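FIELD: query
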Amino acid sequence: MEINTKYQVLEWLESRKILIQTWKATSKNLSQESFKSEMVKLTEMVKAKKNAKLLVDMRKFEFIVVPEIQNWINANINSVISMAGCKKVAFVISHDLFTRISVEQAIEDAASLFFESRYFKNVADAENWID
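FIELD: result
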């Protein structure tokens, strides 16, 4: 199963029970509302795939996550992912300093309350950890 939008690809690996969210370079053009809409698509897929492990590939992610969006993520995304049984989330992070910092702040603020998460520089290391 795969969902491919203008900004991301959501791919379900049934044999490993891993959901991979891959952000596209077009993410730099996201508005706050578009970002929220894309994240809701993620939560819908996580809810459909109970107890999924989540791998988020953010190497091409260029949307700056401001504090207001960080709060929205914690209230509307992290909690939903957790309630759907997701216990581990691996992040392959962007090399852009400002994007990376905004993403790490959004995740670290509350993610530890919901699931175990770690950051990686490449997909292979992230996949090894999440399995």
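FIELD: remark
Residues 2-130 form a domain with the Transcription Regulator spoIIAA fold (CATH 3.30.750.24).
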